[in-house]
């Protein structure tokens, strides 16, 4: 069984090991993984009014480390009324 939990700097995966105990591993979020996750959730993002999502910063340049965050630039649909409350909920 695999259970995912996220931190701001990396993806953590809880996986079963011998004896039924679990262990977490930090996996750096490289550009390909970030883009794959965004594509995986494209229908949800579009339904929320996001038109374009771009990766920038160290992840886009391939210079990210285990302590790096993922920088995203988001363009919202101008036809939809967006507020900070509606975006954050």
Q: How would you sum up the major sheet?
A: 3 strands, antiparallel
What general outline do the C-alpha atoms trace? elongated
Tell me how many strands there are.
5
How much helix, percentage-wise, in residues?
A: 25-40%
Based on CA atoms alone, the radius of gyration comes out at 16 Å
Order of strands side by side in the largest beta sheet? 1-2-3
Q: Order of SSEs, N→C? A: EEEHHEHEH
Low-confidence residue ranges: 6-23
Alpha-carbon distance between the two ends: 29 Å
Class from secondary-structure proportions = alpha+beta
How many distinct folded domains?
Answer: 1
Number of helices: 4
Averaged pLDDT, please?
A: 75
Q: How much strand content do the residues show?
A: 25-35%
Structure, described:
Residues 6-23 have low confidence and may be disordered. The protein contains 4 helices and 5 strands; from the N terminus they run βββααβαβα. Helices cover 28% and strands 34% of the residues. Strand 1 and strand 2 (11-16) form a beta hairpin. With 89 residues, the chain is an alpha+beta fold. The longest helix is centred in the middle third of the chain and has 10 residues, at 31-40. The strands form 2 sheets. A 3-stranded antiparallel beta sheet has the order 1-2-3, with no helix packed on it. The protein has a two-stranded antiparallel ribbon with strand order 4-5. It has one domain (2-88).
Give a short summary of the structure:
The chain has 89 residues and is of the alpha+beta class. Helix content is 28%, strand content 34%. It has one domain.
Furnish the topology, listing elements before pairings.
Layout lengths: L1 E5 L4 E6 L5 E6 L3 H10 L1 H6 L2 E7 L1 H4 L9 E6 L7 H5 L1
Antiparallel strand pairs: 1-2, 2-3, 4-5
């Amino acid at each position: 069984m695999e259970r995912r939990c996220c931190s701001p700097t990396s993806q953590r995966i809880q996986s079963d090991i011998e004896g039924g105990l679990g262990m977490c591993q930090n996996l750096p979020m490289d550009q390909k993984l970030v883009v794959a996750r965004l594509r995986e959730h494209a229908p949800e993002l579009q339904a929320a009014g996001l038109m374009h999502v771009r990766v920038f910063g160290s992840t886009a340049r391939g210079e990210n480390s285990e302590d790096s965050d993922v920088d995203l630039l988001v363009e919202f649909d101008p036809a939809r009324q967006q507020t900070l409350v509606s975006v954050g909920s």
